[in-house]
Amino acid sequence: MKLFFLYLTFLQCICAAAQSDTKYQIYINRIKQFSKPVRVLSNYVDKEGNGPIEFTNAKKQILRFRIMNHKLQILHGGIAYQLFYYNNKYLQRIETFDASGNLAGERESKSEAAVAFIIEKPNLYLKKKKLIDDAEGNINLKDDTNEKIIRVELFDQNNLPIREFQPTYISSKMYWDYNVRMYWP
User: Fold this and answer.
1) Is the Cβ–Cβ distance between 45 and 66 less than 8 Å?
2) What is the rounded distance in angstroms from the CA atom of residue 172 to the CA atom of residue 145?
3) 103-144, pLDDT tens digit by residue?
């Protein structure tokens, strides 16, 4: 009899875990670029239905969005989702989407719907990354944008490059923040 109740409890736990994935499946399915199946990476949605949730998959993509009152929250500029692409734990690209799952640009800046990151000086970045990692991100590094370590390429809602007169570089610390998903639109 004890074994039966233990088995029943185990099944309830599995069902509860599966429901947390399926509860948000309608939102996940809107992003066609996000490969399935998925698993919850982090879930900070409280009992009132407010907070962020992140999903990942076998391709090491991470899809995140916020929930407000149990519904998808629309963020700044009409953006509802962010999709992160990683290669060997390094961020390669971020794409932003509206509530319908279409690429959506950040209207407040250059209307970019995607940002690609190119580490042009990997050895130098690794040195700076170690300093940032050792401080768990709580460090004020001198802005190293002029050292041209990390270049970004911007893309519009049609996934076409946004032309710029000269390459755009970001600091190692800013890239680190993006890599650990500190930024929200």
Assistant:
1) no
2) 7
3) 998 777 778 999 999 999 999 999 999 999 888 888 888 899
- Measured CA to CA in angstroms, residue 38 lies from 28, 66, 126 at distances of 9, 17, 30
Q: Between the CA of residue 183 and those of 10, 71, 95, 105, 134, what are the distances in Å?
A: 37, 21, 13, 15, 20
Listed in sequence order, the residues at least 6 apart from 129 whose beta carbon sits closer than 8 Å to its beta carbon are: 172, 176
pTM of the entire predicted model: 0.85
What is the 3-class SS of the chain, one letter each residue? CHHHHHHHHHHHHHHHHHHHHHHCHHHHCCCCCCCCCEEEEEECCCCCCCEEEEEEECCCCEEEEEEECCEECCCHHHCCEEEEEEECCEEEEEEEECCCCCECCCCCCCCCCEEEEEECCHHHHHHHHHHHHHCCCCCCCCCCHHHCCEEEEEECCCCCECCCCCCEEECHHHHHHHHCCCCCC
